[in-house]
Amino acid sequence: MAIYVVMEPPAGSGKTEETAFVRDGFTWLGLLVAPLWLAWNRLWIEAGLTFITMAILSVLGRKLGLEWAGSMLSLLVSLYVGFEGQGLRISALRRRGWRQWGVVEADSFGDAETRHAFEVDEDGDEPAPLPRIVPDAALARTAQTGMALGLTHTPGRP
Q: Is the pLDDT of residue 35 over 90?
C-alpha cells in the first residue's frame, strides 16, 4: 500500500475543493529526468539548481578527463531527486500556505481520495478548536534580587 500526504489549500483562497494528494515514496521520473520532473511540478528553483549542478558536474568531469566521475555525480543528483522529490513538493506547498491535513494509506490515488472523503465526513469539515492554556500568574516565581553566581541566577553569599 502507498502512503499519500493530503495537503489542503490556504484558508483564504477559493480552492476549498482542491486538495492535493502527494504520494510519499520514490519517483522514477524524478530519477530519469530530474530537472524536467521538477519543472513539471512547478519547483522552478529546484529545477534550475538541479540543471545547473548537473551541467557543472558534466563540464568539470570532461575538463578533468573523468567523464565517468561527472556522470556518476550527476546520477547521484538524480537519485536524490528520485528519493526526495515528493518531499520537495510537500515543502513547496507548505511555503505557498498549504497545510497538511494528514496521511492516507491506500492502494491507488482514487482509493486515497475516497478514504479522505470518508474521514472528512466523519470528522466534520472543521476540527474542534484546542483549549487555550494560560498560566496562572499566582504560581509565577518572584523575581530574585541580589548578587548572582554563574548563568543560572543562583543568589550568592553577601
A: yes
